[in-house]
Structure formats: C-alpha cells, structure tokens
Design brief:
The chain is an alpha+beta fold. The chain contains nine helices and eleven strands. It comes from Sphingobium lignivorans.
C-alpha cells in the first residue's frame, strides 16, 4: 500500500529517506471496522495514528452526554496529536468507514524530531494547518448560518479529498450521516437535511446515493462562511531557513 503522505510533503519537500521512514510507519498498519473506536477519550496516550485509508471522526463528550465532533479526518492525516500534551486522551477517534491506521509510538515520534528534522518540521507545519482549520470552524459555529457552515465544510472536504486524489469529476463519496453533520456543525439533523436541499435546489451541489458533486464551485464559495485559506506550501519551509540538521543555531549570531 502506497502511504498517502501528501499531508507531510505539503510544506516540506521530502527526500527518499523521509519517504522510506513513512513507509516503515505504514508497515505496522491495522484495520479498524466502521463504528469502532481507534482510541477513546480518557485512554492512555501511547502514540499517534497515521490514517492510511478511510474516514475518522474526532469527537469530545460534553457533561450532559452530548457528542461534539470537532474534526473529520481523511487519508494522510495524523490522528491524536493534541493528546500528546495531555495525561489522558482528550478525544475519541471513531472510524466512520472501515479504516486502516498505522500506529506511531511516542518514542518513535520523539526520535523522529531528533533524527529526521525535515519530516518533523513537515509534521509541525501540518499541525499549524490543523490549527487554522480549528480557527475557521470556531468562526463558523460562532457567527455563521447553517447554510454558510455547510457550504464551507463541503468546500473544505472537496479541497482535502482532491489533494488526496479522492475526487472524481468534482465529486466525492460522503459517508457522513446527517447526525454526523449535525454533531460537527452544531445544528440539528433536520436543519442539516433542509440545508442540503437548499444547496441542491440552488444548483450548488448535486446529491445522489451518498455522493456529492460540486456543481457550482464559485457559487458555493460565494455562500460559504469564509474564503478558503491560502497556505504557503513549500515557502513555509524556506521561511524557516530550510533546517536539515541537528545543529541548533545561536539566536545571537548574525
């Protein structure tokens, strides 16, 4: 199986040795069936997960027992990164489809930061992209209408799936239920259904048996909560001075 490492090389050009390390991570992959938890909130944190195939939801439970989905993960994503800073896992990772994940133990991740700084910088910048995504989703929940939220989410999915090579003719499979979308966007399933119909009737999207086609990309962007962010790509690596060794420069020098 070819590892989907597009997320790791979006900011840092990977070398052959970098790709070899990713393949070694992928060699320890295991399959998780749909509806099963990869790791639950409160579990021991023994490492992170590299998503090889399938869709995963990251969610948190509120005090009264309601679930809030905070992220839908796609192939190439690293799962469970935020919990590295916690004593116990802070999120539940649930397989929305059958998935294949590779487990990267904490010690292996720590060695990567020392022995493979290029890959470590790529991972660091990728986590900043996740922070931007979180900032955007918070802005949707706080100030946007259901139509604006759903339009922005579909645009985000389309962009991420396209980067992973998982779109066809501007369309993609959508394995999320209306309850999943409601838990993610902070609206009711009934409101999700009505909003999808509005987008369909307006000609922005076409729905058919769990598949979404973006029929009017410009129109969908016009009604979305905010414009998609423009990432720096490999320029981000250049900004950091293209670090490639273990030497830590003296900030007083130069």
């Amino acid at each position: 199986m070819q590892p989907p490492y597009h997320r790791l090389e979006e900011f840092v050009p990977l070398t052959g040795s970098d790709e070899g390390l990713v393949r070694r991570f992928a060699a320890s992959s295991r399959k998780i069936h749909r509806g099963h938890a990869i790791r639950r909130e409160g579990d021991h944190v023994g490492g992170i997960f590299f998503l090889m195939e399938g869709w995963v939801a990251s969610s948190m439970m509120l005090r009264e027992g309601r679930r809030q989905i905070v992220k839908v993960h796609l192939p190439g994503d690293m799962l469970g990164m935020p919990s590295l800073s916690l004593s116990r896992a802070g999120e539940t990772l649930e397989a929305l489809t059958d998935v294949v994940v590779s487990v990267i133990p904490c010690p292996a991740l720590g060695r990567m930061f020392i022995e493979n700084p290029r890959l470590a910088v790529g991972l660091f910048l990728s986590t900043q992209k996740e922070r931007v995504a979180l900032m955007q989703s918070l802005s949707w929940i706080g100030a946007a209408s259901a139509l604006e939220r759903l339009a922005a989410f579909l645009l985000d999915l389309h962009s991420r799936l396209n980067a992973a090579g998982l779109t066809r003719a501007d369309g993609f499979d959508l394995p999320l239920t209306q309850q999943h979308l409601a838990d993610l966007l902070g609206i009711t399933p009934v409101h999700v259904n009505r909003t999808l119909k509005r987008l369909d009737q307006a000609g922005y999207v076409q729905r058919s048996r769990g598949r979404i086609v973006i029929a009017d990309l410009a129109g969908l962007r016009a009604v979305a909560a905010n414009a998609p962010p423009r990432f720096a790509d490999h320029e981000a690596w250049t900004r950091l001075g293209s670090p490639s060794g273990n030497h830590i420069p003296d900030p007083r020098a130069g």
